Amino acid sequence: MGFWKSLFSGSETSSPSRTTQVEAHATDGTSDRSLSPRIFFSTEREIDLYELEELCDAVGWSRRPLRKVKKAIQHSFLVVTMWEQRGVNRRLIGFSRATSDHAFNATIWDVVVHPDFQRKGLGKALMRQVIKKLRSEDISNITLFADPQVVDFYRGLGFMSDPEGIKGMFWYPD
Amino acid sequence: MGFWKSLFSGSETSSPSRTTQVEAHATDGTSDRSLSPRIFFSTEREIDLYELEELCDAVGWSRRPLRKVKKAIQHSFLVVTMWEQRGVNRRLIGFSRATSDHAFNATIWDVVVHPDFQRKGLGKALMRQVIKKLRSEDISNITLFADPQVVDFYRGLGFMSDPEGIKGMFWYPD
Question: A165 lies in a domain?
């Protein structure tokens, strides 16, 4: 539990830069930290779109035109990426973004964690970064639309479905 | 039905300007159109915030800091207002706005119609303007969060609640 504890407590500290580093201890017990993988979060938007597409492919999402993905990233209020660094190699292992009116409401979209890194608490860590950033921008209403299989995941992070009977709705063409 | 038919068919035509005029025939049967009230829709963002506050007061919404309302309007992807014009007097009778990533998703917020103008089909007309504008910008995923008492209203406009089990969720602080 030591690693995740330090990861989460690390994610609670304020960061003046666009990158938050949290340290992942190697599970093989090595004491040489220079060889240990590290997990980074970043709000930098200069993302290799092909690397992002690869990440989305890995979880089975339908491909989307990169031109539109680029536009969506540009016009998102917040983008948070999660990286694994081993030595000089950096690998994109998670992504999330939010639209917002910059004042009251934000809606989180495209939350993805690479299958190799799922079930390790990293999805929660990524979402906590997103929530922390939105709260730091004084956004009071943080919303999302959850697929049925991840409703419990978001519930564990403090999200409520249909509070006071409010229903998420999607428009379908006639 | 003649008025609403022409109003709705008017709302289907593309408008190069930021204002769409639809004509409301007076119900007293007068043939002098210059004296008839007219309904306008506009995407202009230069809105008198006090007039908007008055509209929101009329439906019993909690007041919000005008500084934040201004910021939210500025950073919304789309703002659609509805106006009644009688002679030279223009009155704000409806409002709606949407956040978006400008590419895939939009979320509609703050839909309001003045009580004096409810139950006349004007809420539907306003929403059709919003949907039409979002579709014209190639937004495929139009979403909203509906209070229980307006779920059927949105259903009548083509919105589905919880499609494929997708749940709207709101984050609550611990």
Answer: no
Answer whether A14's CB lies under 8 Å from A100's CB.
no
Catalytic, out of B154, B159, B168, B172? B154
Please tell me the pTM assigned to this model: 0.84
User: Is residue A2 assigned to a domain?
Assistant: no
Confirm whether A154 is a catalytic residue. yes
The nearest CA of chain A is from the CA of B110 a distance in Å of 11
Calculate how close chain B gets to A140, using CA atoms only, in Å.
Answer: 9
Identify whether A67 is part of a domain.
Answer: yes
Which ipTM was obtained for this model?
A: 0.84
Tens digit of pLDDT for each residue in B5-15?
334 333 333 34
Cβ of B168 within 8 Å of Cβ of A162? The answer is yes
| Number of domains, chain A | 1
Q: Looking at residue B100, which CATH number applies to its domain?
A: 3.40.630.30
Domain that holds residue B68: 17-145
Burial letters for A33-58: b for 16+ Cβ neighbours within 10 Å, e otherwise?
eeebebbbbbbeeebeeeebeebbee
Nearest chain A residue to B166 by CA: give it.
A147
